[in-house]
Every structure is written in C-alpha cells, then in structure tokens.
Amino acid sequence: MYILGISAFYHDSAACLLKNGEIIAAAQEERFTRKKHDQAFPLNAINFCLKEAGIEIDKVDQVTYYEKPKIKFERIIKTYLSEVPNGFASFLRAMRLWIFDKLWIKRIIRKELMYKGGVYFCGHHESHAASAFYPSPYTSSAILVMDGVGEWDTTSLWQTKGSKLEKISSIRFPHSLGLLYSAFTYYTGFRVNSGEYKLMGLAPYGKPIYKDIIYDKLVDVKEDGSFKLDMKYFNYTTGFTMTNNHFNALFNRPPRTPETEITQLDMDLAASIQVVTEEIVLKIAQHLHQKTHHTNLCLAGGVALNCVSNGKLLMNGPFENIWIQPAAGDAGGALGSAYHYWYKSSGEQKTLPTGMDHQKGSLLGTNYLNEEIELYLEENEIPFEQLDKTAFNEKLARLLEEENVIGWFNGKMEFGPRALGSRSIIGDSRSVKMQRQMNLKIKFRESFRPFAPIVLAEKAKDWFNFSGKELDKNFNSPYMLLVGEVNSSQIKLNSESKHQGFERLENIDSLIPAVTHVNGSARLQTVHSETNKDLYSLLQAFEERTKCPVLINTSFNVRGEPIVESPEDAYRCFMRTDMDYLVLGNKLLDKKNQPPFVESKDWQKEFKLD
Questions:
Q1: Is 167 among the domain residues?
Q2: Domain containing residue 303: CATH number
Q3: pTM for this predicted structure
C-alpha cells in the first residue's frame, strides 16, 4: 500500500510517501522552488516522492492531508465574530485565501495530481502526534504536541494504546505557548514562524528579569501546566501583528524595527520568555507523566524545535527517554497524516526499529549520483578534483585544520529544518575566528548566532553533558534537537567578567569556541556510521589529525534562502560566499580554481531577510 501525505497552504509545505508503513521519501517544497517556508501546493515534493518510489500517481492507494480545513475555518469565523467590529481588514484578507484555496483541498489535490482515489483528512495535532510516535524507537509512549495552533488545539496530551493514539486533554486557541513565544519573536524584531530560533539563540546574552511580569500580566499557569493568556496584550486573533499597545506599555517601547540594533532589553526579554517556556513545558510533562506513567515521551509541534527546552526536559523531567520528530513543524504533518492512516487502516502493530528509529536519520530527500554531479560540472566547465575515499578524507581533515570552510553536499537531503550532514557547511570547531567568520562572510546573518557541533557518537560523553550529568554511553542526539553543555574539562567561563550583551562572546575560553555559546551550551548532533557513513569517516579522519572529534555543522544556505537541494544550488551558494572548498559527492572544488562567477541580477534581493 502506498500512502502519500501532504501538508500545504500555511507554511513549510511538504510531501512524504509511505510503502506498507515504511518511509520511502519526504521533502519540503521550499527546497525545489527556492522560496523559504513555501506554503504552495507541494507539487515538486510530491513528484520527487513518486519518482523515488518508481511509481505514478495511479499507484497511490490513499492521499492524506495534515489537518481538517472545515474545522479550522470554523475556528477562524467564530474568532472574528467574537471580536466584531475589530479585525475587519484581517477578516477580508483571510477569507480570500480560504474561499479560493483552503476550503477546496480535495478538489485541488485531484486536479493538481490527476488523482482519482480517496483523500483522508487527519486532525492537525493528531498528525503531529502520529509523526512523533510512529517513527520513534518505542512501542508505547506518552506524546506531547505544542505549537501555535491547529484547528482549535494549541497544546495536546496523548498516550498510546497498542498502536493507536489516545488523546487525553488539550488547551485551545487563543491560549497558545507557541503564539506567546512568537509574540516575543515579533516584539524583538524577528520574523514570526522563522525567527523563533533566533530568539532562543539570543536568550543566553540576557537575564530573565521580566519573568515575573510575564507570569503576572501575560500568562496564568496552573500546577498541571495548563495556562491562559490575557488577550488584552495580544493582537493575533484578528489583527496583522502579534502584540498591541498594551504590550508596548508593559515594556515601555514599541516593537524593535527589524535590522536595527538589538538592545539589552531584547536580550533580557528573550531570556525571560525562554525560561517561562521551559518551566511551562516541564510542568505539562510532569502532569502527562502522572496521568500515563509512561517512561517514554515523544514530542512534535513547533515548540518541540526549542532544543534548549528539550535539553532541560531530558535532564529535569520525569521521563527516562525522549524522542523528538526532526520535522516537528508543519512539514512533519505530511508524514504524520500518512502514518496515522496506515496504522488506522492496516491494523498493523508498531514494531521496534532495526536501527535507532524508523526515521532513517531523516535523510529522506533527493540524492544525486556521482555521475550526475560530474555531468553537471563538465557541462558547465567547472574544475574539480577527485580522490579515493581515504585520500579524500585525509585532505579534507587537513583543509579543515587549516581553518578552511567547506560546503558539504553528499547523500540524501534532510527532511526538516536542520542540516544533518548532507547539505551542510562545516568548519573547525577549535577555531577562535570561525564563529564570526561563518556568520558574517558565509551565512550573512547576525554575529550573535551560535553554531552547532557535530561529534562522533561514541565520543560525545568526552565533550558534552546535560546539566552537569555525564552522558550515557548509548546517548544519541542525531537530529540536533537537544542543547547540553560543553564539559568543564574543555571550557572555562569567567564568572567574574563584567561583560554584558554581545561582549560576552569574549567571555569564553573553550577548546571548541566556534560551537560553544556564551553560557557554555551547545546544540549537539551525534553522528552515527549507520546513518551517515561518509560524514562519520570524515570526523574520524579529523580526530586522527587533531585529537578532536568535533566539527561545526550549519545548514548549506545563506540567510533568507532555503537549504540547497541540487548541485547547481550548492555551487551558486559556494560562489556567492567566502567558502573555501566545496564537496559535491566524491568531487572537491577549490574556490581559487573556479572561473569568475557572474550574477544575472542582485541575488541578495531574491531572498527576504528573516
């Protein structure tokens, strides 16, 4: 049985294909259209999935969609009616989208795909819950879904009964932890639905001095983690902004204008909402554990991408094991809806995976053969070098040690927002200049942003810990969704330093400064030979040369651009930046040997800054 899952028409449209309950392929539409967070019908992603399986659309037994549009439309109508006469302009804009697209999903699917079969609509949070549990390495678990909003739910608690999902309770719109965090994202001058991770990265530069104000004025939290927002301060129910003048008065200024100076207030607000988020998530998890007594927890929804909160939950929460869907946002809903239909219709029981999980390292996207890459390079007269694998890794390790920055395009593209070692930019984690150089000259982004370390899985415990607790020898974090700390043996933080704000970057004395955040934290990714053999071998070669099994890994793109999908995308990004070398499969390109690269237009205007 082939099941095609789709998410579309909000943000991060995506498609995935299951064959008898196994993931064959999954991808986001943005990678093909080069439009970040593309919300359009994911025709390119669908065509890729079908091609990967070697089938046409008539072989698909069922198409699934990640939410129930009619119920979502009901919520929007009821919300506007409750606010009349406020929000009329916003109402008109929303109605145009719904009347022409969002209410006609089944018709659009059949027209775009020439598909004649059935279409199954799965609840939004049900899709998230399914995406969290079914690919996980557990046969039973509790499940926590937290995001902005689905149809009505913003937080939902689940447990498994055999292979079925059972909803325990939920919190409904407009009361949303995801939207509360997005309100602070907006207020501090970042783009909602894409800048939340910037707010998380900004938090360690500040102090949570506004925590009490948030609890006193904005959100009322009960002991079981349930909460209500005081909607007096928010504008997202019917307006075009997240916050209003009451919110401005609370912090004595209007929202920061994007691209202007980030102030200490912004840093302290980021620290404050981050702590509040962590505390609410922990309370909800404790309540969920008391209700279910499960030892395993699965997470999905946009809030599950808050890897700092995830790390705190892992160490301080009641669950022994946590698994987080790497495509935790709406893109993962495509996968979840397909999985939900499979287990509902087939009656199959969930089994343990042969590897770490059923997600296959989330390396589920396009893959270009070395012959295809060579054809592209030769047709465009692009010079390259080819070496055998051993010599290749030895040369790359030497280039990295010499502080060269390398674009790494190798193997299947990642599904989800993180580059996990197939479409990555890599560098020496020991370099004191690398963090600033990669931010400003390669990623074209804010200099405060931290980079993530990749580490050989079996060496992670020698370099990292969680809340001072040594990692178990079987610990793994393959999806870059957990923040821990650099071991005290590898770092010294000057606790008596008078530095404030971004000056705190000078407060770090670490053996791996390029991946050590100002508070000594690190968003680590463990690399495993069974999911990414080539990257694992490169890390081994680097360790043999330097005694350090840790490199920088950041996504292969520039600010405002989706992660690269094709060799052509990779070459353009390589030539537009100060990267020194580019790996395309088994080919190595040296920037110094490349012909002049001429842009046909001002390429930086192609991408909206976010």
A1: no
A2: 3.30.420.40
A3: 0.95
User: In this structure, are 450 and 551 located in the same domain?
Assistant: yes
Residue 350 shares a structural domain with residue 378: no
Residue 585: burial class (beta carbons within 10 Å; 0-12, 13-18, 19+): buried
The pLDDT tens digits of the residues spanning 541-571 come to: 999 999 999 999 999 999 889 999 999 999 9
| Model confidence at 602: pLDDT above 90 | no
Q: Are 400 and 486 found together in one domain?
A: yes
Reported as a single tens digit per residue, the pLDDT across 398-420 is 999 999 999 999 999 999 999 99
Based on the number of CB atoms within 10 Å of its own CB, is 33 exposed (0-12), middle (13-18) or buried (19 or more)? middle
Q: Is residue 480 part of a domain?
A: yes
Domain co-membership, 554 together with 523: yes
- Give domain status of residue 147, yes or no: no
Determine which helix (DSSP H) or strand (DSSP E) holds 25, and give its type and residue range.
Answer: strand 22-28
The DSSP string of 37-102 is T--S--HHHHHHHHHHHT--GGG--EEEESS-HHHHHHHHHHHHHHHTTTTHHHHHHHHHHIIIII
E strand or H helix that includes residue 423: strand 423-428
Domain of 426 in residue numbering reads as 370-605
Residue 340 shares a structural domain with residue 293:
no
The single-letter code of the amino acid at 405 is V
For 215, other C-beta atoms within 10 Å of its C-beta total 16
Q: Which tens digit of pLDDT belongs to each residue from 267-294?
A: 999 999 999 999 999 999 999 999 999 9
First vs last Cα of the chain: how many Å apart?
Answer: 40
Give me the phi and psi of 599, to 5 degrees please.
-85, 140
Token pair 């280039």 is found at 399
What percentage of residues in the chain have a pLDDT greater than 70? 96
CA distance 13 to 555: 19
Q: Are residues 214 and 270 both part of a single domain?
A: yes
Alpha-carbon dihedral angle through residues 371, 374, 379, 384, given to the nearest 10 degrees: -170
Phi/psi zone of residue 73: left (φ > 0), alpha (ψ -120 to 50 degrees), beta? Answer: alpha
The larger pLDDT score, comparing residue 467 to residue 402, is at 402
Place of tokens 């094709």: 566
Shortest CA distance to 110 belongs to which of 69, 65, 54, 68? 65
> What is the DSSP secondary-structure string of 233-277?
GB-TTTSSSSB-HHHHHHHTSPPPPTTSPPPHHHHHHHHHHHHHH
Domain contains 168? no
Label residues 259-286 b or e (16+ Cβ within 10 Å = b): eeebeebbbbbbbbbbbbbbbbbbbbbb
Please calculate the CA angle 575-193-445 and round it to the nearest 5 degrees.
35
Tell me, yes or no, whether 400 and 515 share the same domain. Answer: yes
Distance between CA atoms of 64 and 344, rounded to whole angstroms? 12
- Assess whether 342 and 317 both reside in one domain: no
Find the CATH number of the domain harbouring 417: 3.90.870.20
Strand partners, 14: 7, 28
- 531, burial (CB in 10 Å: exposed 0-12, middle 13-18, buried 19+): buried
Q: What is the secondary structure of 544-587 as a DSSP string? A: HHHS--EEEEEESS-TTSPPP-SHHHHHHHHHHS---EEEETTE
pLDDT tens sequence across 224-268: 999 999 999 999 998 889 999 999 999 999 999 999 999 999 999
Q: How many domains does the chain have?
A: 3
